[in-house]
From TrEMBL:
Tree of life domain: Bacteria
Annotated ranges, domain RNA polymerase sigma-70 region: 21-87
Transmembrane region(s): none
Family: Belongs to the sigma-70 factor family. ECF subfamily.
All residue ranges annotated as the RNA polymerase sigma factor 70 region 4 type domain in the record: 121-173
Name of the protein described by the UniProt record: RNA polymerase sigma factor
Molecular functions per Gene Ontology: DNA binding; sigma factor activity
Keywords, sorted A to Z: DNA-binding, Sigma factor, Transcription, Transcription regulation
GO biological-process terms attached to the record: DNA-templated transcription initiation
Keyword Transcription set for record: yes
NCBIfam families from the UniProt entry: sigma70-ECF
Amino acid sequence: MDDSQLIKQILSGDTASYALLVRKYQDRLFNTLVHFLGSREDAEDIVQESFVQAYLKLATFQGNSLFYTWLYRIAFNVAVSHRRRRKPVYSVDLGREIAGCEPVDGGAGPEQRMQRHENVEQVRAALETLSEEHRSVLILRELEGLEYDQIAEVLNTPIGTVRSRLHRARAQLRDHLHNLIPEDQREMLP
C-alpha cells in the first residue's frame, strides 16, 4: 500500500495504519538525524517527536510532495529547534557511540582496518565542524540520496541555495580532511 492510501485510511479513522508509516520511515529518519545531531539519544527523541507532530498535522498534508519529504521537513525543524536549545558536545567517545559497530572488511588486515576506522572518525569529526545548513544539505544529498528539489523542499530553501550550500559543504569537508589525513591514506576515505 502506498503512502497516499495509508494517509487516506488514517484520516478516515483507521489510526492503526499510522504504524505502517512509522515502520516504513523510522529507521531512515533516525539514521539521518544521528548524523545531523551527533547523538543517538537525541535522534531517538527527535524521531519520536517528529512522528507525533506529523500525526497531529496529517490533515494539513496536501500531497504536493512525497510523505517522507514532508516528514523530513518536520523532523529537521524539530532538530534545528533542539540544537538551538542545546549546546553541542564533541568528543571521540561520542563519535564511537554514534558509529556503533563498524562493519569489518574481511579482506583488509588489522592495520588497514584500524586506519580505515581512524579515517571514519576523522570524517565524522569533520562533518561536525560544518555549519548546520551545510551539514544538513550534505547529509540529505550524500547519505539519504535525495534530489536537489527534495532537499529544497525539506529545508524550505531555493534549489540554487541547496546547490551552493552543497558545493561549499563538500569543499569545506575536503579542506578539513586534507589537513587531517596524510596524502598516502586519502584513498581509504569512505
